[in-house]
Every structure is written in C-alpha cells, then in structure tokens.
Amino acid sequence: MKNKKNRAISPEFIFSSGPLIPVLVIDNADDAIPIAESLIKAGISIIEVTLRTSAALNAISKISQQLPEITVGSGTVLNHQDLIRSQDAGAQFAISPGSTPELLKAGSKENIVFIPGVSSTSEIMQGINYGYTHFKFFPAEASGGVKALKSINGPFPNIRFCPTGGISTKNILEYLSLPNVSCCGGSWLITEDIIRGKNWPEITRLATHTLNKTQQTYK
Ligand code: 3PG
After folding, report:
1. How far apart are CA 53 and CA 96, in angstroms?
2. Domain limits of the chain?
3. Ligand 1, residues 47, 93, 115, 138: which to mutate, most atoms within 8 A of Cβ?
4. Measured in angstroms, how far is the CA atom of residue 66 from the centroid of ligand 1?
5. CA distance 143 to 212
6. What kind of fold does domain 4-214 have according to CATH?
7. Which protein residue's CA is at the shortest distance from atom 9 of ligand 1?
8. Probe target for ligand 1 pocket from 50, 78, 118, 164, with the most ligand atoms within 8 Å of CB
9. Which helix (H) or strand (E) holds 147?
10. Which of 79, 107, 145, 171 has its CA 20 to 30 A from that of 6?
11. Which phi and psi angles does 72 have, rounded to 5°?
12. To which H or E segment does residue 114 belong?
C-alpha cells in the first residue's frame, strides 16, 4: 500500500479539504478503517485522530497505509515528541489544543504540517511570529465562539481558523459563514456510543447530513 507520509501538503490544503474535520477518539485501532471508510462514503476527505488513547498512533498508521483517499492527522499534540510520533505513524498533519514556544518552534521545522491551537489574540501574535497563518481556535464555544472570531478578524484579516470545541450541526453554519473560518472540527459524527455499537452507517448518515447542510455556506 502507498504510504502517504511524505506527500507534500500545506495548511491551505488541510483547511480546504472540506467544511468539517471529524475528530476521532479511538480505543481500538481495528475500528479505524471502518470509521474512516464510513466518512469517505459520505464524501469526507480528512480526519483527525486524537493522541488521547494508546490506540491512536496505530489507528493513524492503518488509515495512512490503507486509505490513501483520506488525509489523516493527529490531534491533542502536546509537545515535540508527539509531533515526531505523529509523523512516524504516517500522519500528514498535526493539531494542538494550545501553543507553547517549544511546539511552535518544532512545528516550523519538522516535516509535517502543524496547526497550533489558540484561544487569544496574544497566542495568535505569538504564532504569527513563528510564521503560522492557520490555527485551530479551541475551545471555540467556550472562548467566545462566533462573536470572538468576528472581532479577531479586525486586527488579523489574513489569518484563518478551524474552530473546534462545542461545534455541531446546530452552529456549524454560523462559523463557516465567517470570512476567517475555512473549516470546523468536531467529534459529534463519531461518538462513543456509535463506536461501541459499531454503528458505521450512522457515521455516514451524520456526515452526509452535515455536508448537505453546509453545501450552501461552504466556500
Ligand atoms: C478536540 O479534541 O479537538 C475537541 O475535543 C473536539 O471538541 P468537540 O468534542 O466539542 O467536538
């Protein structure tokens, strides 16, 4: 199977891969392929697997090696070591919930697209100083949501965000209609219940519903 590890991608590519980056917390790596296939069936072409479980890196490897049609990245990247582990597992991008100088520096030199997390203007300014233009806005709803991102667009009109944290079909359209939001992240398509029941068609149904809903707004 083709390993996509070295495929050249950019933050722009990640942020234009669709209106939604589904976030997956996975306990059993054997579930990775059916979950990713259920998303692909609905037309999703990107997924984030959080490094919160011991199965995560194995899940990333499986998706990376077996499903070249979906871009897989790691989430909950907390330090330089997580970035290296993600890269070695075949992740094409890595996302962190927040920013540290260590991670910002490592992300700008490692051979993997790194999207730092921010929730304040000072963190955005720090990220810009390291050359970043694309950020995860986390936790989106708790950090002021749509209102905050609207205000942030004033001083930072060229910066793009992927809000995550508290996003669902109820509010995704509001976020996607903002000029500085390219895509949103969210875990609601792949809940613990769905995974426990191996209800893969439900993932396809929820993803299809979301994509249909965003069709008008998505630019
Ligand atoms: C993440 O890891 O990015 C968030 O926990 C996802 O947030 P959500 O569960 O509110 O979608």
Report:
1. 15
2. 4-214
3. 138
4. 25
5. 27
6. TIM Barrel (3.20.20)
7. 187
8. 164
9. helix 145-152
10. 79
11. -115, 135
12. strand 113-115
Rounded percentage of the chain residues whose pLDDT exceeds 70: 95
Minimal-distance CA residue to ligand 1 atom 3 = 164
Which tokens sit at 179? 């000029």
Mean of per-residue pLDDT scores for the chain:
94
Let me know if 174 is a catalytic residue: no
Selected catalytic residue, list 4, 48, 62, 123: 48
- Tokens 């050249």 belong to 8
Q: Which two tokens stand for residue 61?
A: 């490897």
148-194 tens-digit pLDDT: 999 999 999 999 999 999 999 999 999 999 999 999 999 999 999 99
pLDDT at 2 > cutoff 90: no
pLDDT at 215: 86
Q: Is 136 a catalytic residue?
A: yes
Band (127; pLDDT cuts 50, 70, 90): very high
Among the listed residues 136, 150, 170, 192, the single catalytic one is 136
How far is C-alpha 26 from the geometric centre of its chain's CA atoms? 15
Q: Residues enclosing ligand 1, CB less than 6 A?
A: 23, 50, 75-76, 164-167, 185-188
